[in-house]
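Intended use. Records like the one below are meant for learning the mapping from a protein sequence to its folded structure. Do not use them to infer anything beyond what is encoded.
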Amino acid sequence: MMMELDYKAIGKRIKIARINADMTQEALAGKVDLSPSHMSNIETGTTKVSLTTIVNIANALSVTVDDLLCDHLVRARAQIEKDIQAVLDGCDDYEIRVVRNTAQAVIDALRKNKELKAEENGKNNGRGQRSPFRCFML
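Structure written out for the chain above:
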């Protein structure tokens, strides 16, 4: 299954990494031999970015390509866990409890949905019928 890249998400991650590196768009553009306007277009997701450019940007920002592409990786657990930890680092005790409870409720719902999907697929026995729960399945 082919996945379409979300260039806006990639651009957002590039911008965040650039800001975290305390670098201007112009400085980053210069390091990777791009015009500042092209760098701006990359960060806003209004242009496609090549793999070579992504690698050059990652090197210039001292981040991994995974850091910039993790939204598109099937197996990006380590990066996603890092992102979650970064979110939690800014939370007080109350917020962390709310986040934990919310996360647990979402996980419970996802697992229940998976069970419903498996049950529905078993009922269809491969007859190609569509599940009435189809729009809720992940």
